[in-house]
Design a protein that fits this description.
This protein is mostly helical and 289 residues long. Helix content is 68%, strand content 0%. Helix 2 packs across helix 4. The N terminus is likely disordered.
Amino acid sequence: MIFDLLNNVPPENLPASILAGIFGLLIGSFLNVVIYRVPKIMQREFDNYIAEQNGQDLPHKDVFNLMLPRSACPHCGHQITAIENIPVLSFLALRARCSGCKAPISVRYPLVEMLTAGISFGLLWHFGAGLAGISSLIFAYFLIALALIDFDTQLLPDDLTLPLLWCGLLVNTQHVFCSLEAAVTGAVVGYLSLWSVYWLFKAITGKEGMGYGDFKLFAAMGAWFGWTVLPVTILISSLAGAVVGIGLIVMAKRGREVPMPFGPYLAIAGLLMLPYGHLITQKYLGIVL
């Protein structure tokens, strides 16, 4: 099946794909900022809200957003210069160490940049440079940020999940990935399906199996590619989560009681299902029926 998918890609999409890959490196660098700062922005806003409710001085009065202050080394405060902020190349030139204090720089930064570049290349190769291609890039960039934020903090911020949902509905007013009716139904079915599983699991076990952010992310996926693809999407994400979870228990001796975020596995399934969801669903139904 994989070779069939690749053979259906028009060769004229290659130039746009290469440009998208280069652009993806730059976007990946920005996504690193989003992944690092959004949880901190949320925490600062929460701290200020609690202080305000208690009549206390605000603990955070300085400007802190996605643009300001400039990126700096968390160890010594050295501000990252423009030449030190070139995706992947700067990491290699600096030999993965801060130029100020020589503290190690996480390899995840260039990995996110390369991942974003690779996904950008693949999506434009598949969809071309039209509305579907540009829209698919927006979808992917949101998912990359959400997956890694959830991996780090077990949070899926409304500031990202809700705009992703509305973007899906807006894109499908033009019937890009599905009809608007299917998109609206997909958003409702996506939310209510995981919401129902959450409450059923809680009623049986007394524990929370997932967070409300998972409902919203799955609703956003329904808004992007319609309700018919959702069953296979949740199947793929559940299988991915089960494989990784079992691997962590066996290989890393991770306890079963340690919570594991579900957002990254939803994101993996979503990135696969946006370009190939309807085809995979047809193949799957052909096997099980």
